[in-house]
Structure formats: C-alpha cells, structure tokens
C-alpha cells in the first residue's frame, strides 16, 4: 500500500514536471519574441538616427538663402523639434522593448528554476520507490528463507519422530 501511494505521488510530481517543461517552452518563445522586438526597435532607432542629419538638412535646405519671416523660422524649428520628438519616441520604445526582454529573461530563469525543482522532486520519489522495491524484495527473500528454514525444521522433527530419537519417545 505504501509503495502504491508513493507511486501515485510520483505520478503527480511527473505531471508537475511536464507542466514546468511546457511553461519553460512558453517562456523560451516569449523571450525569443521579446529579443526580436528589442532588436527591431534598436534597428529602427539606429536607422532613424542615421537618417536624421539628412532629414534636418532637407528642412534647412528649404530656407537657406531665403529671407523668411518669423513664422517660417518657427515652422522650421517646429519641424526639427518634431524629428527629435520622434527620435525620443523611438528611444522610449527601445527602452520598453529592452525592459520587456529583461522581464522575459527573468521569467524564463524562474521557469527554468521551477523545472529544476520539479525534476528534483521526481528524482526523490523515483529514488524512494527504488529503495522501497529493494526493501520489499529483501523482505520477500527473508520470508522465503524463513519458510524454508521452518520447513526444514518440520522435516527434521518429523524425521526424528520416525526414528524414535525425540524427547517424547524417551519419556514414554
């Protein structure tokens, strides 16, 4: 009964291990997606920054050599400020993507630790089952040996009765 109960607990632990493996696979996929998103955000920002001087030059080229009023100058400054604001938005998106990748990395590490714990729990019960099986086998061997010894004693006593060598026949 005890061994059967432990086997049932081992099966429960194995199911926990399977769920931990599934969780780790899901965390791996989430981490991969987060890393891809961070790389894409990094590439987008790098491209924007590389193109920024050309974009600013095109704004300034439109007014260079011309006499412009204050409104035109403010419009030009607003366009350059909009370029920089967009760069800041892209930098913020990169920071968010990198934070998400760090969180995904942490979640994966947590899932990996959970899987290791689950595997240790299964191993404990597997080892316990092996020990109990060896104990049962040793106990069965001892019982068989005891039965053989008892049988040999009974045969010896029976042989003694037939030969008249036992103590009861002498007393009579």
User: DSSP strand (E) fraction?
Assistant: under 5%
Amino- and carboxy-terminal Cα gap? 51 Å
CATH class: Mainly Alpha
**What general form does the structure show?**
rod-shaped
Number of helices: 3
Order of helices and strands: HHH
CATH topology tier name: Helix Hairpins
Mean pLDDT: 89
Specify Rg, calculated over alpha carbons.
41 Å
Please provide the count of β strands: 0
In the CATH classification, which architecture applies? Orthogonal Bundle
- Please state the structural category: mainly alpha
The total number of structural domains is: 1
Q: pLDDT below 50 for ≥5 consecutive residues: which ranges?
A: none
Helix content: over 70%
Tell me the major beta sheet.
none
Task: Give a nutshell description of this structure.
This protein is mostly helical and 172 residues long. It has helices at 2-61, 70-163, 167-171.
Describe the protein in words.
The protein has 172 residues and is mostly helical. The protein has one domain: Orthogonal Bundle (Helix Hairpins). The protein contains three helices and no strands. Helix 1 packs antiparallel against helix 2. It is rod-shaped. The relative contact order is 0.13.
């Amino acid at each position: 009964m005890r061994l059967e109960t432990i086997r049932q607990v081992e099966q429960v632990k194995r199911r926990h291990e399977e769920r931990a493996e599934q969780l780790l696979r899901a965390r791996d996929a989430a981490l991969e997606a987060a890393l891809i998103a961070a790389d894409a955000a990094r590439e987008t920002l790098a491209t924007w920054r590389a193109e920024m001087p050309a974009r600013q030059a095109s704004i300034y080229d439109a007014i260079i050599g011309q006499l412009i009023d204050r409104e035109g100058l403010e419009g030009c400054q607003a366009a350059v400020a909009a370029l920089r604001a967009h760069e800041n938005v892209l930098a913020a998106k990169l920071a968010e993507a990198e934070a998400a990748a760090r969180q995904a990395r942490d979640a994966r590490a947590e899932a990996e630790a959970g899987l290791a714990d689950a595997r240790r729990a299964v191993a404990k019960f597997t080892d316990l089952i092996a020990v109990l099986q060896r104990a049962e086998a040793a106990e069965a061997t001892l019982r068989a040996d005891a039965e053989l010894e008892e049988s040999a004693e009974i045969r010896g006593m029976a042989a003694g009765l037939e030969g008249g060598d036992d103590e009861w026949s002498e007393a009579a």
